[in-house]
Amino acid sequence: VQLQASGGGLVQAGGSLRLSCAVSGRTISSNNMGWFRQAQGKERGFVAAISWSGGATSYADSVKGRFTISRDNAKNTVYLQLNSLKPEDTAVYYCATDIGRTYLHRSPRDYDYWGQGTLVTVSS
Questions:
Q1: Strands 33-38 and 45-50, how do they pair?
Q2: Beta bridge partners of 31
Q3: Which residue of 32, 65, 114, 120 shows the fewest CB atoms closer than 10 Å?
Q4: Does position 114 have pLDDT exceeding 90, yes or no?
Q5: What pLDDT is stored for residue 113 in this prediction?
Q6: CA distance 41 to 44
Q7: For strand 57-59 and strand 45-50, is the pairing parallel, antiparallel, or unpaired?
Q8: Averaged pLDDT for residues 55-69
């Protein structure tokens, strides 16, 4: 199973980016999916998760109302729309497959396969 994250870059505060996570080797329609981020010197933290059907989502309080997670099971791809970006959103963003489909997990321990990460840098 491989996850390829893309879409990161340098953006000014207030700007937007759209991250994509293309999955190969597994049909993601069987799994909930999540996005995490890790800033330099900090632990990897939860950003957002989406259920296998796309019918339920969960967000960290720090991104709620600004970020939107979505998925296209036909394309085996998960997205994260980042709006109203702030300098504190600067981090490497990772997508991951949840080990199950019952709960929208927020701990990295509940995810098994991870992408390589894509860097988002927000300048002030």
A1: antiparallel
A2: none
A3: 65
A4: yes
A5: 96
A6: 10
A7: antiparallel
A8: 98
Contact indicator for 33, 78 with CB cutoff of 8 Å: yes
Residues 6+ positions from 42 with CB-CB distance below 8 Å: 91
pLDDT digits (tens, 9 = 90+) for 8-61: 999 999 999 999 999 999 898 889 999 999 999 999 999 999 999 999 999 999
Looking at the chain, the number of H-run helices and the number of E-run strands are 0, 11
Strand-by-strand arrangement of the 2-6 sheet: 2-6, 17-24, 77-82, 67-72
What does the buried/exposed string (b/e) look like for 67-93 if buried means 16 or more CB atoms within 10 Å of the residue's CB?
bbbebebeebbbbbebeebeeebbbbb
Distance CA 66, CA 48 (A): 11
